[in-house]
Design brief:
Number of strands of chain B: 14
Structural class of chain C: mainly alpha
Helix content of chain C: over 70%
Number of helices of chain C: 15
Largest sheet of chain B: 5 strands, parallel
Largest sheet of chain C: 2 strands, antiparallel
Strand order of the largest sheet of chain B: 2-1-3-4-5
Oligomer: heterotrimer
Strand order of the largest sheet of chain C: 1-2
Low-confidence stretches of chain C: 1-5, 326-335
Number of helices of chain B: 12
Distance between the termini of chain C: 13 Å
Shape of chain B: globular
Number of domains of chain B: 2
CATH class of the largest domain in chain B: Alpha Beta
Structural class of chain B: alpha/beta
Chains: A mainly alpha, B alpha/beta, C mainly alpha
Helix content of chain B: 40-55%
Order of helices and strands of chain C: HHHHHHEHHHHEHHHHH
Mean pLDDT of chain B: 85
Distance between the termini of chain B: 69 Å
CATH architecture of the largest domain in chain B: 3-Layer(aba) Sandwich
Chain lengths: ~290, ~400, ~325
C-alpha cells in the first residue's frame, strides 16, 4: 500500500517535471510580456518533431537534439514576438488571447499538412529501461527528462537573478515604465523572454521524444495541465509554476490511483477551483502585473 | 485603450452596421450558392463517403478515403453497374473534420447536393450516429462498419455488415480463455463512446464466460503518462489486460507495461490496435499481442487480393475499417445492380434483401452477408487477430483462423 | 451624432428583416444549413457578448451553459416525454442557477485567471457528464428520438423551420442586448467593462451587475444548446461541453466587434462564410489545408483590425455614403 502510494508520487513527480518546462514558459511570457500564450503546447510539438526528424534521419539521440531544438525554438520565439506579439501588445486581453489561439490552430494544421496525422516514435536504448530501488521503479527516460527539466529551471533562475539581461527582464516584468526609464529596451527584453519560453517548450518536446509519440495534437495534452499549473502557481511566478507543476503531476497521479483513472483531471480542476476560491491570485499570491 | 467615447460610438455604429450585416449575409449566400453542384450525369452514379480527414481521427480517416477510392476504381474497372448500362460509380468524399456539427451539415450537403444512391462512413461512433440520423430522415441508405449498438435501433436506412460492440466483447472474453485457464482480466478503457460501449459489453458478458474482471477502470483519453494506470493494473493482480484505447494511448500503455516489466497477456481490442501505425510505433513490443477486428486482410482470397493492391499503392497493409468499407462499396454496387436504379429508396430496398456469399461484397468474416430487419448482418462476427512478424494474422475463431495463435 | 446621413434606421431594419425572412425561399438546402449555423453561432456569440463584450469578463467556459441547456431538455424529452420547447426554458433556468455558484467563485478573479477558471468549470462539467451513465447516457451519448415532423416537439421535416427558429433566437438575443444597451444596466455594464475598479470606486455594485448579466448570458446560451441538439439529433458530453464552442462564442464577437450589438453577427457571417468557402475548395483534399488557411486569415484579421471587423464596414459605408456630400458638415468621427 505504501509502495503503491510512493510509486504514484514518483510517477507524478517525474511527469510533473515536463509540465514544469511548459508552464514555466507560459508564466515567463506572462510575467514579462503580459500575455497568455495559448500556443505554448504547439511549440512543444515542434520540439518533438525536430527531435524526431533528427533521430530518424541522422540517428541523433533526442537528448542531444536539445542542443538544436532549443536554439531553433529560441529563434522562433524571437520572430513570433517581433512580428506577431509586438503588434497586439497595446490592445488588451482579447486580441492577444485570440492571436495565440489562432497561432495554435495554424501550427497544428501546418503540422497535419506537413507531417500527416501519423504518430511518430523514437526508440532509444533507454526508452524502456527502468531502475529499481526497493519496491519502486523509475523509468530512466522520464528520470532524465525530470533531471534536465530541473536543470533548465535552475539555469533559468540563475539567468534571471545573475545576469544583467535576466535582471532587466525581471525589472520589465515588475514595472515596464520604470524599466524603460532606466534604459532597458523592452522590445529586446520581450524577444528574449519569448525566445527562452519557447526554447523551454521545445526542450520539453525533445525530452518527451524517447517515451512519448509525436503527432500534431500532442501539444494539447500537455498545455492544459501546464495552464492550470501556471494559474495555481500565480501568473508570472516562475518558482510558483515549477512547484505547482510538480504538485499537479502528483495530484493527478494520486487521483488516478486512488479515486479513479478518469478522475485525475477532475481532481486537478477541483484543486484549481478551490485554490482560486481561497486565493484568487494563485497559491503564491501577489498579482504579478 | 478604447475608453471614453466607446459607448456612444457603439450606439452610433448600430445603424450603420445594419447595412454591413445585410451585405454580409447576402454576400455569403451568393458565394456559398456557388458551391452547389448538380447530381450525377446520366452514366455515373454518385455514392458518398464521410470520413474525418482532419482533426483527431485524421490518421484513420485518410486511410479510409484511400481505400474508398480504390474500391470505386475496382468496381468501375470491372465494368461498373451493368444493369444500368455500365454506369460508373462516382465517389464524393466529404471531410467531417472529426466534428459533430460539421458531420451534421456535411452529411446533409452530401445528400442534398449530390443525391448519392448510398453513403458510407464515418469511423467514429458519435459522428456515425449523427450521419445515420441525417441519412434516415433524408431516406438515403448508409452503410457503416462502426460498432455502436445504437446504430441498429429504430432505423431503416442504416446497414451494418460487420460485428457489433457487444460481439467484440464476447470474442475478447473467449480469446482470453485460450491464453489462460483462469483469466483475471483488467479492463482499462478511454471514457468516451468507443471505450465505454466496448467495455460495457465486456462487463456484462464476463460472468457468463467464466472470466473474472478484477479491474474495470475508465480513464481520460489523451494520457500524458500511462504509469499511474499501469500501476493500478499491476496492483490488481490481473493476468490479462484489455485496453480499449485510441492509438496514442495504446503506445504509452504498451511502453509503460514494458517499463515496469509487467508480464501480462494483452488483448488490445480493435481501434488503434489493428492499424499499421501501431506496429510502426511500438515495434517489437507488439509481437504476440492479441486484438479483435471486424475485418482483416487475410480472411479470404479476395481480402488478400485487395490488400496486395492497397499495399502496392500506399505502402502499408489494408487495416480493418478501410478493408470493411471496400466490401461495403461492393455491397452498394450489388444493390445497384439488382435495383437497376440509382434511386436511394430502391437501393435501400435492394440492400435490405441483399444476400451474398461470394465476391468482394461478401468479403467479411464468415464470408456471408444478409441483413436482418434491424440492419444487422445476421452472419457478422468479429475475428481475433495477433501481431506476428510485423503483420496482423487472424487466429480466432478456428473457422476463420489463417495462422496459429502464438502463445507467449 | 449623425442622423439623416444614415437614412431612417428603421427602414434598414425592416429591409434586413424582410431579407432574413425571405432567405429560405431562395436558398438551396446547403446554403440553408450554413445560414442555420450562422444564426445559431451568432446567437451564442450575442449571448457571450453580453458577458465578454460589454462587461469585459472574458469567459472561455460558456460551453458549460450550452451543455447544461442541451442535457436538461434532452433528459426531459427522453425520460419524461416533455417537449423541448419547455425543456429549452427549463435548460435556461438550470443554466442560470449554475451561473450563480460559478460566478461566485470566478468573479473575484481577474483577466486570465477568470478565463482559465471558466475553462475549468466547463471541463469539470464535461468530465462529470462523461461519468453519469444512469440518467444522462454517459460517454456514449444518445441520438434524439426520430419523431418525424413534430413541430410541438421541435422536430421539423422542413429545414426552413429550423432556420426560422434560429432566426427567432437570434432576434431575441439582439432584442435583449439592445434593451440592455439602452437601460441603466447597460450603462453600469459598460462602466464595469471599461474599468472595474473605477466603477467600484464610484459606488457601482460590480458584483451584482456581473451576476445579473451572467444570468442572462447563461440563460440565452442554454437555449442555443437545446436548439443545437435538436438540430444535429445527437448529444454527448464531448460535443456539447466542447471547448470549441466556448472559443467560437468568443471568437465571433472578437472578430466582429466586442461590445457592439451587431458585432457577433458580423463576425459569425464572415467566419462561417470563410469556413464554408474553404471547406468547399479544400474540403476533401489534404488534411489541414483548410484550417491552415482559416487560421492565417484569423491572424490577419486580428493584426489588421483588432477591434473587430465591424469598424471596417462602418468605415466603408462612411466613405461610400459621404463620397458625394460635403465633408465639412460631418460630425467628428468616433475616437
Amino acid at each position: 500500500m505504501l509502495a503503491t502510494l510512493a510509486q504514484a508520487v514518483v510517477n507524478g513527480l517525474l511527469i510533473g517535471g515536463v509540465y514544469a518546462l511548459v508552464s514555466i514558459g507560459v508564466t515567463l511570457i506572462f510575467g514579462v510580456v503580459k500575455i497568455v500564450n495559448f500556443a505554448q503546447g504547439e511549440f512543444l510539438m515542434i520540439g518533438m518533431y525536430i527531435s524526431f526528424f533528427l533521430a530518424s534521419s541522422f540517428g541523433i539521440d533526442p537528448l542531444l537534439s536539445l542542443l538544436i531544438s532549443m536554439p531553433c525554438l529560441f529563434a522562433v520565439g524571437v520572430l513570433v514576438q517581433h512580428f506577431l506579439i509586438r503588434r497586439v501588445l497595446a490592445l488588451g486581453d482579447m486580441p492577444q488571447i485570440f492571436l495565440t489561439f489562432a497561432l495554435s490552430l495554424l501550427l497544428i494544421n501546418l503540422a497535419l499538412l506537413l507531417f500527416t496525422a501519423n504518430y511518430r516514435t523514437v526508440q532509444t536504448p533507454y526508452s524502456e529501461l527502468t531502475i529499481h530501488i526497493g519496491p519502486l521503479y523509475f523509468a530512466v527516460a522520464k528520470l532524465i527528462a525530470f533531471a534536465i527539466a530541473m536543470l533548465l529551471s535552475g539555469l533559468l533562475w540563475l539567468f534571471l537573478h545573475g545576469t544583467d539581461l535576466g535582471k532587466a527582464m525581471r525589472a520589465a516584468a515588475q514595472n515596464r515604465e520604470v524599466a524603460m526609464l532606466m534604459g532597458i529596451n523592452p522590445d529586446r527584453v520581450f524577444c528574449v523572454a519569448v525566445g527562452v519560453a519557447l526554447a523551454l517548450a521545445g526542450a520539453a518536446g525533445s525530452l518527451l521524444m524517447p517515451f512519448y509519440p509525436a503527432y500534431p495534437l500532442v501539444g494539447q495534452i500537455f498545455v492544459l495541465m501546464a495552464f492550470v499549473a501556471v494559474v495555481l502557481g500565480t501568473l508570472g511566478n516562475i518558482t510558483g509554476a515549477l512547484i505547482a507543476s510538480l504538485m499537479m503531476g502528483i495530484a493527478e497521479s494520486l487521483g488516478v490511483q486512488f479515486v479513479g483513472a478518469d478522475s485525475g483531471l477532475i481532481v486537478v480542476f477541483v484543486m484549481l477551483l478551490l485554490t482560486l476560491a481561497l486565493r484568487p491570485n494563485g497559491l503564491f499570491g501577489g498579482w504579478a502585473r | 485603450m478604447h475608453k471614453s467615447n466607446r459607448y456612444t460610438a457603439a450606439k452610433r455604429l448600430d445603424r450603420r452596421d445594419f447595412l454591413a450585416n445585410s451585405c454580409g449575409i447576402l454576400a455569403a449566400s451568393a458565394i456559398t450558392g456557388f458551391g452547389i453542384r448538380s447530381s450525377a450525369a446520366a452514366d455515373t452514379i454518385n455514392i458518398g463517403g464521410l470520413y474525418p480527414v482532419t482533426g483527431s481521427f485524421a490518421q484513420i480517416g485518410q486511410g479510409c478515403v484511400n481505400a474508398a477510392k480504390l474500391a470505386v476504381q475496382m468496381v468501375n474497372d470491372a465494368g461498373g453497374i451493368k444493369s444500368l448500362g455500365g454506369a460508373k460509380l462516382n465517389l464524393i468524399v466529404s471531410d467531417v473534420q472529426s466534428d459533430p456539427t460539421v458531420t451534421r451539415t456535411e452529411t446533409d450537403r452530401l445528400i442534398s447536393s449530390y443525391r448519392p444512391a448510398a453513403i458510407h462512413g464515418a469511423f467514429a461512433s458519435a459522428l456515425t450516429l449523427i450521419a445515420s440520423e441525417v441519412a434516415e430522415r433524408a431516406k438515403t441508405p448508409l452503410l457503416t462498419g462502426s460498432s455502436s449498438d445504437q446504430l441498429n435501433k429504430d432505423r431503416r436506412y442504416t446497414f451494418t455488415p460487420f460485428s457489433r460492440a457487444s460481439q467484440f466483447a464476447l470474442a475478447q472474453l473467449q480469446m482470453s480463455k485460450l491464453v489462460s485457464d483462469q483469466p483475471k482480466v483488467a479492463v482499462i478503457f478511454e471514457n468516451t463512446a468507443f471505450g465505454t460501449s466496448t467495455s460495457n459489453g465486456l462487463r456484462e458478458q464476463a460472468p457468463g464466460q467464466g472470466v473474472e474482471i478484477v479491474l474495470f477502470e475508465p480513464y481520460s483519453a489523451g494520457l500524458s503518462d500511462a504509469s499511474p494506470l499501469i500501476n493500478k493494473v499491476k496492483a490488481s493482480g490481473a493476468n490479462m489486460l484489455f485496453p480499449v484505447s485510441y492509438l496514442n494511448d495504446l503506445i504509452l500503455i504498451i511502453r509503460a507495461i514494458k517499463q515496469v516489466d509487467l508480464k501480462i497477456a494483452i488483448n488490445g481490442g480493435s481501434g488503434g490496435f489493428v492499424i499499421p501505425d501501431f506496429y510502426r510505433n511500438v515495434g517489437n513490443a507488439a509481437e504476440g499481442l492479441l486484438g479483435i477486428a471486424h475485418w482483416n486482410h487475410d480472411i479470404n482470397e479476395n481480402a488478400q487480393k485487395i490488400n496486395a493492391a492497397y499495399q502496392k499503392q500506399f505502402g502499408e497493409f489494408l487495416f480493418e475499417y478501410a478493408g470493411g468499407l471496400v466490401a461495403q462499396t461492393f455491397m452498394i454496387a450489388d444493390a445497384l445492380e439488382r435495383a437497376a436504379s440509382a434511386d436511394p429508396q430502391k437501393v435501400r430496398d435492394a440492400l435490405a434483401t441483399l444476400e451474398v456469399s461470394e465476391g468482394y461484397a461478401a468479403m467479411c468474416p464468415g464470408g456471408r452477408v444478409k441483413f436482418g430487419p434491424d440492419g444487422k448482418n445476421i452472419y457478422a462476427h468479429p475475428v481475433g487477430v495477433q501481431w506476428q512478424r510485423g503483420d496482423l494474422a487472424t487466429v480466432f475463431p478456428k473457422e476463420d483462423a489463417r495462422a496459429q495463435l502464438i502463445k507467449a | 451624432m449623425t442622423q439623416s446621413k444614415v437614412g431612417r434606421p428603421w427602414l434598414w431594419v425592416a429591409a434586413l428583416v424582410a431579407v432574413a425572412l425571405a432567405l429560405p425561399l431562395i436558398s438551396s438546402p446547403f446554403a440553408l444549413d450554413i445560414f442555420i449555423r450562422v444564426l445559431l453561432f451568432a446567437f451564442i456569440g450575442v449571448a457571450w457578448n453580453l458577458m465578454g463584450g460589454y462587461a469585459k469578463q472574458l469567459s472561455l467556459g460558456h460551453a458549460a451553459f450550452f451543455g447544461l441547456g442541451a442535457y436538461t431538455s434532452t433528459i426531459l424529452l427522453i425520460r419524461f416525454g416533455i417537449s423541448p420547447w419547455i425543456g429549452m426554458l427549463a435548460g435556461g433556468v438550470v443554466a442560470m442557477l449554475a451561473s450563480l455558484p460559478i460566478g461566485a467563485l470566478c468573479f473575484r478573479l481577474r483577466g486570465p485567471y477568470f478565463a482559465i477558471a471558466t475553462i475549468a468549470t466547463a471541463q469539470v462539467l464535461m468530465l462529470l457528464f462523461l461519468k453519469f451513465r444512469d440518467f444522462a447516457w454517459g460517454a456514449e451519448g444518445t441520438t434524439l428520438p426520430n419523431l418525424g415532423d413534430a413541430p410541438l416537439m421541435m422536430q421539423f421535416d422542413s429545414k426552413s423551420a429550423y432556420y426560422y427558429v434560429a432566426l427567432a433566437l437570434l432576434a431575441l438575443g439582439l432584442a435583449i442586448t439592445y434593451s440592455i444597451e439602452h437601460s441603466w444596466m447597460g450603462f453600469y455594464l459598460v462602466a464595469v467593462g471599461e474599468d472595474e475598479d473605477a466603477a467600484e470606486a464610484v459606488g457601482v455594485d460590480t458584483t451584482k451587475i456581473k451576476r445579473h448579466i451572467y444570468l442572462i448570458s447563461a440563460f440565452l446560451t442554454a437555449l442555443a444548446g437545446t436548439f443545437y441538439v435538436e438540430y444535429i439529433y445527437f448529444i454527448d458530453p464531448n460535443t456539447v461541453f466542447s471547448f470549441n464552442i466556448s472559443v467560437e462564442a468568443a471568437l465571433v464577437s472578437i472578430v466582429g466587434g466586442v461590445g457592439t450589438l451587431w458585432g457577433p453577427v458580423v463576425g459569425t457571417v464572415l467566419l462561417e462564410a470563410t469556413s464554408a468557402l474553404l471547406q468547399s475548395w479544400f474540403g476533401s483534399g489534404h488534411g489541414g489545408v483548410q484550417l491552415t488557411v482559416y487560421s492565417l486569415i484569423l491572424i490577419g484579421v486580428i493584426l489588421w483590425r483588432p477591434n473587430g471587423l465591424i469598424g471596417l464596414f462602418s468605415d466603408l459605408y462612411e466613405r461610400l455614403a459621404l463620397s458625394g456630400s460635403s465633408r465639412a458638415k460631418e460630425a467628428p468621427l468616433d475616437g
